[in-house]
Amino acid sequence: MTTRDSTVNPDIFKAYDVRGVYGKDLTEEAVYRIGRAAALYLNVPEIAVCRDMRVSSPQLVAAAIKGITDQGVNVIDCGLTTTDELYFIVGYFNYQAGIMITASHNPKQYNGIKFCRAQAYPISLDTGLADIRDLAIQGNFPETAHKGSVTHRDATDDYIKHALTYIDVSKIRPLKVVVDASNGMAGMVMPRVFEHLPAHLYPLYFELDGTFPNHSPSPIEPENLVALQQKVLEVGADFGAAFDGDADRMFPVDEKARLDDPVQSDPLQERTRADREGRGQSHSHACRAFLYQSRDAQG
Ligand SMILES: [Zn+2]
Q1: Which of 104, 182, 265, 294 is catalytic?
Q2: CB 3.0–4.6 Å: which of 32, 94, 196, 249 could bond 63 by disulfide?
C-alpha cells in the first residue's frame, strides 16, 4: 500500500492517540480527514470536542469540527478543557464519543488528538483508531444528506463541582500549596478549584501559553520540576504539584520538595472506582492533588 500521495501520514497514529508536528505531518487537512473518518467510523449522533491551549489548537479544532459536521454528525464544542474534563464531559452528559486536540506533555511544535467512546472508554489502535486511520488515509467519504450542527457547552463549572464531591472540604486544614501549571490547562482549572478550598495557592506559570516560555510541559523531566521545588522550599509549602500540558498527569512533591509517585488521570480506573462507590458514570480528577496529599489532614 502506498501512502505517498496521501495527506494523512500513517505514522502519526500512535498506540493511544494521534500525535505529530503541526504543519508537517499534522496539518489542517489531515485533521479534517481524521475528524471525518472518526464521525464515519463511530456512527454516533454527536461528538464532544475539546482542545488545549497549544498555539495550533484553534486551527486544528476548527478542522476537526468541519470534518465531523461534513460527515453529518453534530458537534458539542466544549472549548478549552483539560483532557480530564473531556472524559468527565463524555461520561456526565452521556455523549456517545469525544475527541480532544492536545499533545499532552510534548514540546510546543507538536499537537495531536485523543479519542474516547461513550462513558469515556479510550479509543486506542486496537479498539478503533486503526479503523479511523485507514478511513482517513483512503479519504473516500460518502456524501451525507445534511451537515451536522455545532452547539457550544462550557462544562468547567460542572467539572469542578463534580471534582469537589471526591473530597470533604470541611476536613481540610489550611494548607499552603504550590502548583506549577507549565503554562498548560491546569492554569485555567486550578484557581477555580482553589476558590472552594481553605488553602493558600502559590501559582507558578498559570498563564495559558502554548509557546511554553518557562519550561516544557513535561514534569517527568526533573529539570521541569526545579521551579516548583524551589518555590515549595521558599514559601514553606505543605506540598506542591506540577501538571503536564493537558493536566492529566500530576507530579507531587512533599514539604521537603521530594518527588512523590506521579498521578495519572485514568478514566478506566475512575470508572471502576465510580462503579464501586455507586456513583454511576465515569469521571476523573481535578483536585486530585487534594485527594492525594490531604489524606493525612483528613485523618
Ligand atoms: Zn497529558
Answers
A1: 104
A2: 32
CA of 94 to the centre of ligand 1 (A): 23
Backbone φ and ψ of 253, nearest 5°: -125, 150
Alpha-carbon gap, residue 49 to 30, rounded angstroms: 17
Cα-only R_g, the chain: 19
Calpha distance 39→20 (Å, rounded) = 21
CATH of 157-296, one of 1.20.120.80, 3.40.50.150, 3.40.120.10, 3.90.226.10: 3.40.120.10
* pLDDT for the residue numbered 284: 40
Q: What is the pLDDT of residue 260?
A: 85
Mean pLDDT of 54-62: 98
How many Cβ atoms are within 10 Å of 66's Cβ, its own excluded?
A: 19
Q: Is 22:67 a contact under the CB 8 Å cutoff?
A: no
Banded pLDDT at 171 (limits 50, 70, 90): confident
104 has catalytic annotation: yes
Q: What is the pLDDT of residue 67?
A: 98
Bridge partners of residue 21, in order along the sequence: 110
